[in-house]
C-alpha cells in the first residue's frame, strides 16, 4: 500500500505568510478565550467539597448522581467509597454558595429522595461532649442516609500545583531550546519552541472555549504534547540539514519545501498511528481519560500543522542559511598540513 | 552488511527473557492474605514468627496456601476472603497479648497468585494506584496538647540558659502544664528578669505572682504564639509523613491537612496497610540527654531510692535501668542526616550529622562533660528506650555515631526512622478506610481496552502498509510493551490510570521510530539503492532523527517527573521509561528481526515493504515542469 505519491516538492513556503497569519489568528483567538473565559479547573486545582454519606442499604450511584446533578452545582462526581453503602460526592467550590450550605443542600436532597426529613439531634459523645448534628430521619425513626463526613479541599494545594506546572513548563521549554540550539542552531531552537508553545496555547484555548474540565491528567497531556510536538519540528529540521548538505543548488526556500515534502508521508503515518491510540483511549478509556485524550487529539493535529507552518516558516523568516547547518571542514583532507587543527 | 554479531542476538534474547519473566507476575491476579509485621523497631520479624503464625492457624483449624517470610513481614495466603478474616482474628489473638499495645501489626492484604519461583526471582506485579484498585485512607489526629507541652519544655531550657547568661539568680524553674514558673527570692531580681524576658521571649505573656520572699514569674504562651506552635507542629508532621511515605515508595501519595488538627493520608495501591500503618504510625524521635551518675541516682536505678528530682528512669537496651536527666541536650529536630554504618570495632552503628545549632550545643556540652555519660534515647509511641549511653571521651563535632547493642538491621531501621524526621506532636489514626476496588476494576478494564484496541489498530495498519516490515515493526512494538511492563514491574512502580494512558501514548509514539525507518528504507529503494544497501542506510540514517526526537520528548518527560505530583508524576514515570524502551526496541530489536530475515540472503532482489513508487523526477527539481 502506498498513500503518498508526491511527484514534486510542494511549495509550502510560498504560502507561509498566509498560513502564518492563520496560525496567528488561531493563536490570538486561543489567548482571547483564555483571558475572557479562563480555564475550568478541576477541584484538584480549585479546591472543592467532598461529601460522604452512608446509606442503610446499598446505594444506587447513578440515581444519586442524577439527583445531585439536578441541583445544578456543575460537575459532580459520585462514587463508592469503601463499602457499597458509602457514597462519596465531589463538588467544585462555588464562590456564590457557602461551603457548608452546599453540603446541607446536597444532604437535604439525598434525604428527600430517600423519603426522610432533616432534623437536628443532640447527642453526647463517648468523651462526654454534647454535640448537635444533622440527621435525616424517616417517620418511623429509621435513618436511611447518614452524613458521615464532609470536607473542604482548600485552594492552597491548587496554588502549589499551578506553581509546579509552571515550573515544569519553563524547564521543558528551556531544556528543549538548549538541546535544539546545541544540536541544530539557535534559529531552529527559537522556531521550534514558538511552534511548540503555539500548540500548547491552542489546546488551552480549546479547553477555555468549551469550558472542558482542566484536571491533572489534562495537564500531563498538555506537557506531553510539548515534548511530542517538538518531535515533528525536529524531524523536519533534520531533513533541512540533510537537504542543505545534499542539494547544494537549492535555495533555503526550496530546501525547506523539500524537507517537508519528503517527510510528509512519515508525518501523516506517525501521527495517524498515535491518533489511533488516542482514539482508542477516547472510545474505551471512559470519563476519566476523556479530556486527556481530547487534549492529545488537539495536540496531535496542531502538532503537524505547527511544525510545517509555524516552525519551518519561522526558521525561514529568521534567515536560516546553509552555513548555519553545514560546517565546512577545514583542511581535513591533508594531515600533513602544518596548519591543520590550528584553528583560532 | 545486514548481519548482527551473535552477542547482539544473545543480548536481545536475554532482554526478551527478562521481559517475559518480569511481565508474567502481572497476569496472575491476586489472592487474599494476612500480613504480619512488627509494630516496633525492637521487635524482630523472623522465621520463628513465621512458625508461630503457622501454629496459630493450625490451632484455629485454618489451612493457608502458604505462610512465608518476606522482607520485614510474614504473609499468609488464603483461598477466599472469609478464611482471610478468620485467620486475621486468630493470628491477632495469638500474637498480641495486649490488644491496646500490639507487638505486631496484623492486617488484611492481597498477595500475587504468581508461583513461588517467580517471587524468588523478585518478579512481582506492578502496584496499581488508588484509581485502579483502591487504596488506604487514613485520617490522623494530631495531639496539639502534646505539641504545646513540648514547646513549654523547650521554653524551660531556653529560660535557664538566658537567665544564667545574664547572671540573674533565680530559685528554680519549673513547668506547670503549659506554663513556666520561675521562682525568685528578691523583688528586684524578679523585675530585672521580667524586663529581660519580656524583651527576649516576646511570644510569652509574663505575669508576676506571689508575695514576700516567695516571688514568681509565670509565663504562658500568648494565644497567637500558641496558634503558631500548633500550625508549625502540623506542618512538621505533614513533612515528616511525606518523608515516611516516601520510604514506602508509594508514587502518588496524598497527604493533606484537614481542619486544624487533622491530616489525611491516602496511599493508592497500598493494600499493604500493615506496612503503611507501621511506618506512618511510628513516632520515633531521638533525644540526647545526660546520664545522672550521682549516688542517689544509682540507688534509684536499682530501685532502693526514689528517682531524684529532674530525672527520669529509662531502660537501656539489654535491660539495665538508667537514670537520665530530664533536660534535653539535643532532639532529632537538629538532626540533618542519619546513615547506618559501622563503628571502629566493626559493630553496627548509626552515623548522625547535626545542623549548626546542634553542633554548637554538642560541642559545648561534650566539652563541659568529659568523662560523663550521655544517653541517646529513642522514643517510639511515647515510650523511650536508651539505645546507648557512651562516656564522652572528647569534644564532639557535628558528626558522631551511636553504636551499641544493635544488629545491622536495627541500625538500618533506626537510621531510616531518624532520617524520616520526627513528629512535632504525636498522631493517632482516628479513621482508616480502604477504598473499594469496584471502581478501580472498571477503570483498569477501560485502560487495558484502550491499550489493546489501540495496539491492534496500529498493528493492523502497519502490517497492511509496510507488509513484512510492518510485521517486524509490530513485533518491535510488542517487545517494547513487554519491556516497559517488565521495567515498571521491576521498579515496583505504581500504575495509575494516567500511567496506562501513558503506555498507550508511548506505544503510539514509539511507532514513530519504525515509521521513520520504514519510510527511509522505501526512500532509499526509490532512489535506486539495492535492497541490502537500502535496509542498512534506512536504519543508519533514521537513527539520528530518532535520537533527536526522543531526546526532546524525554526532556519534557523529565520536567514532568521533577515537578509533577500525583497523577502527573505517574504519567511521567511511564512516559520517560517508555521512551527509553522504545528506542531500544524499535532500533535494536526490529533491526535484529530484519537482519535475521534478510541478512543472510546474498542475492536479495526485493524486500517486502509495501509498494515502492518511483517518481519520474528526482526530488528537488521543483521548477522543472511535470506532466
UniProtKB/TrEMBL annotation, chain A:
Keywords: Cell membrane, Membrane, Protein transport, Translocation, Transmembrane, Transmembrane helix, Transport. One of its GO terms (molecular function) is protein-transporting ATPase activity. Belongs to the SecD/SecF family. SecF subfamily. Pfam families: Sec_GG (PF07549), SecD_SecF_C (PF02355). The gene is secF. Its main location: membrane. It is found in: Cell membrane. Part of the Sec protein translocase complex. Interacts with the SecYEG preprotein conducting channel. SecDF uses the proton motive force (PMF) to complete protein translocation after the ATP-dependent function of SecA. This is Protein-export membrane protein SecF. GO terms for biological process: intracellular protein transmembrane transport; protein targeting; protein transport by the Sec complex.
UniProtKB/TrEMBL annotation, chain B:
GO terms for cellular component: plasma membrane. Coiled coil: none annotated. The keyword Transmembrane helix applies. The chain crosses the membrane at residues 451-468, 475-493, 542-564, 570-594. Residues 427-597 form the Protein export membrane protein SecD/SecF C-terminal domain. One of its GO terms (molecular function) is protein-transporting ATPase activity. This is Protein translocase subunit SecD. It comes from Paucibacter sediminis. The gene is secD.
Amino acid at each position: 500500500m502506498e498513500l503518498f505519491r508526491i511527484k514534486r516538492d510542494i511549495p509550502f513556503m510560498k504560502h507561509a505568510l498566509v498560513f502564518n497569519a492563520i496560525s496567528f489568528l488561531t493563536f490570538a483567538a486561543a489567548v482571547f478565550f483564555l483571558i475572557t473565559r479562563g480555564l475550568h479547573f478541576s477541584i484538584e486545582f480549585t479546591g472543592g467539597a467532598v461529601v460522604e454519606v452512608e446509606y442503610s442499604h446499598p446505594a444506587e450511584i447513578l440515581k444519586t448522581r442524577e439527583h445531585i446533578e439536578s441541583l445544578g452545582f456543575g460537575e459532580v462526581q459520585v462514587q463508592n467509597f469503601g463499602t457499597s453503602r458509602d457514597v462519596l460526592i465531589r463538588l467544585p467550590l462555588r464562590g456564590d454558595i457557602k461551603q457548608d450550605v452546599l453540603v446541607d443542600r446536597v444532604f437535604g436532597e439525598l434525604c428527600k429522595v430517600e423519603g426522610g426529613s432533616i432534623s437536628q439531634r443532640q447527642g453526647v459523645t463517648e468523651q462526654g461532649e454534647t454535640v448537635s448534628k444533622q440527621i435525616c430521619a424517616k417517620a418511623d425513626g429509621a435513618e436511611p442516609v447518614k452524613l458521615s463526613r464532609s470536607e473542604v479541599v482548600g485552594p492552597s494545594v491548587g496554588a502549589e500545583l499551578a506553581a509546579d506546572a509552571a515550573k515544569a513548563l519553563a524547564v521543558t521549554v528551556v531544556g528543549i531550546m538548549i538541546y535544539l540550539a546545541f544540536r541544530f542552531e539557535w534559529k531552529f531552537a527559537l522556531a521550534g519552541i514558538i511552534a511548540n508553545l503555539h500548540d500548547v496555547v491552542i489546546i488551552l484555548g480549546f479547553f477555555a472555549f468549551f469550558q472542558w474540565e482542566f484536571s491533572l491528567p489534562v495537564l500531563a497531556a498538555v506537557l506531553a504534547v510539548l515534548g511530542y510536538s517538538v518531535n515533528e519540528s525536529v524531524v523536519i529540521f533534520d531533513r533541512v540539514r540533510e537537504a542543505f548538505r545534499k542539494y547544494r543548488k537549492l535555495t533555503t526556500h526550496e530546501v525547506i519545501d523539500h524537507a517537508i515534502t519528503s517527510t510528509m508521508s512519515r508525518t501523516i503515518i506517525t501521527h495517524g498511528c498515535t491518533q489511533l491510540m488516542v482514539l482508542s483511549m477516547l472510545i474505551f478509556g471512559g470519563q476519566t481519560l476523556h479530556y486527556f485524550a481530547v487534549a492529545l487529539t488537539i495536540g496531535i493535529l496542531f502538532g503537524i500543522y505547527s511544525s510545517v507552518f509555524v516552525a519551518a516558516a519561522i526558521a525561514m523568516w529568521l534567515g536560516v542559511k546553509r552555513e548555519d547547518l553545514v560546517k565546512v571542514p577545514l583542511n581535513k583532507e591533508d594531515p600533513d598540513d602544518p596548519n591543520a587543527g590550528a584553528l583560532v | 552488511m545486514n548481519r548482527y554479531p551473535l552477542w547482539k542476538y544473545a543480548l536481545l534474547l536475554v532482554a526478551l527473557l527478562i521481559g517475559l519473566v518480569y511481565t508474567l507476575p502481572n497476569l496472575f491476579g491476586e489472592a487474599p492474605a494476612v500480613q504480619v509485621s512488627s509494630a516496633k523497631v525492637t521487635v524482630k520479624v523472623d522465621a520463628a514468627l513465621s512458625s508461630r503464625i503457622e501454629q496459630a492457624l493450625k490451632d484455629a483449624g485454618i489451612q493457608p496456601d502458604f505462610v512465608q517470610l518476606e522482607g520485614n513481614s510474614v504473609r499468609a495466603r488464603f483461598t477466599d476472603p472469609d478464611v482471610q478474616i478468620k485467620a486475621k482474628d486468630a493470628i491477632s489473638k495469638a500474637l498480641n497479648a495486649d490488644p491496646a499495645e500490639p507487638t505486631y501489626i496484623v492486617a488484611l492484604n492481597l498477595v500475587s497468585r504468581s508461583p513461588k519461583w517467580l517471587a524468588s526471582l523478585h518478579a512481582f506485579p506492578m502496584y496499581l494506584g488508588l484509581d485502579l484498585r483502591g487504596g488506604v485512607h487514613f485520617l490522623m489526629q494530631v495531639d496539639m496538647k502534646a505539641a504545646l507541652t513540648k514547646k513549654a519544655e523547650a521554653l524551660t531550657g531556653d529560660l535557664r540558659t538566658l537567665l544564667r547568661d545574664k547572671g540573674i539568680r533565680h530559685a528554680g524553674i519549673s513547668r506547670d502544664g503549659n506554663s513556666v514558673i520561675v521562682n525568685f527570692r528578691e523583688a528586684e531580681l524578679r523585675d530585672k528578669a521580667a524586663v529581660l524576658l519580656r524583651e527576649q521571649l516576646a511570644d510569652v505573656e509574663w505575669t508576676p505572682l506571689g508575695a514576700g520572699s516567695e516571688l514568681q514569674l509565670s509565663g504562658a504562651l500568648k494565644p497567637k504564639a500558641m496558634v503558631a506552635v500548633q500550625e508549625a507542629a502540623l506542618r512538621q508532621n505533614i513533612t515528616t509523613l511525606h518523608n515516611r511515605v516516601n520510604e514506602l515508595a508509594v508514587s502518588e501519595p496524598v497527604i493533606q491537612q484537614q481542619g486544624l488538627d487533622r491530616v489525611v493520608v491516602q496511599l493508592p495501591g497500598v493494600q499493604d496497610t500493615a506496612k503503611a500503618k507501621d511506618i506512618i504510625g511510628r513516632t520515633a524521635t531521638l533525644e540526647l540527654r545526660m546520664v545522672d551518675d550521682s549516688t542517689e541516682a544509682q540507688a534509684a536505678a536499682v530501685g532502693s531510692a526514689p528517682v531524684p528530682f529532674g530525672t527520669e528512669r529509662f531502660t537501656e537496651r539489654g535491660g539495665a535501668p538508667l537514670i537520665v536527666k530530664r533536660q534535653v541536650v539535643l532532639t532529632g529536630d537538629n538532626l540533618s542526616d542519619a546513615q547506618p554504618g559501622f563503628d571502629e570495632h566493626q559493630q553496627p552503628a548509626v552515623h548522625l550529622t547535626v545542623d549548626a545549632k546542634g553542633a554548637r550545643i554538642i560541642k559545648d556540652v561534650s566539652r563541659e562533660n568529659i568523662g560523663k555519660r550521655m544517653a541517646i534515647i529513642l522514643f517510639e509511641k511515647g515510650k523511650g528506650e536508651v539505645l546507648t549511653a557512651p562516656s564522652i571521651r572528647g569534644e564532639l563535632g557535628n558528626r558522631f555515631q551511636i553504636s551499641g547493642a544493635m544488629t545491622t538491621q536495627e541500625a538500618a531501621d533506626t537510621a531510616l526512622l531518624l532520617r524520616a524526621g520526627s513528629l512535632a506532636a504525636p498522631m493517632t489514626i482516628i479513621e482508616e478506610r480502604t477504598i473499594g476496588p469496584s471502581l478501580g476494576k472498571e477503570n483498569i478494564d477501560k485502560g487495558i481496552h484502550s491499550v489493546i484496541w489501540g495496539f491492534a489498530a496500529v498493528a493492523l495498519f502497519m502490517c497492511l502498509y509496510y507488509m513484512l516490515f510492518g510485521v517486524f515493526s509490530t513485533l518491535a512494538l510488542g517487545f517494547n510493551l513487554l519491556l516497559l511492563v517488565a521495567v515498571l514491574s521491576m521498579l515496583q512502580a505504581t500504575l495509575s490510570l494516567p500511567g496506562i494512558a501513558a503506555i498507550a501514548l508511548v506505544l503510539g509514539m514509539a511507532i514513530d521510530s519504525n515509521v521513520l525507518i520504514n519510510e527511509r528504507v522505501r526512500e532509499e529503494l526509490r532512489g535506486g539503492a539495492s535492497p541490502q544497501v537500502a535496509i542498512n542506510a534506512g536504519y543508519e540514517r533514521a537513527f539520528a532523527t530518532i535520537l533527536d526526537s526522543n531526546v526532546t520528548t524525554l526532556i519534557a518527560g523529565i520536567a514532568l517527573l521533577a515537578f509533577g505530583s500525583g497523577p502527573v508524576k505517574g504519567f511521567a514515570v511511564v512516559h520517560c521509561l517508555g521512551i527509553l524502551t522504545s528506542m531500544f526496541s524499535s532500533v535494536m530489536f526490529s533491526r535484529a528481526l530484519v537482519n535475521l530475515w534478510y541478512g543472510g540472503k546474498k542475492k536479495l532482489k526485493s524486500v517486502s515493504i509495501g509498494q515502492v513508487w518511483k517518481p519520474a523526477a528526482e526530488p528537488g527539481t521543483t521548477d522543472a515542469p511535470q506532466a
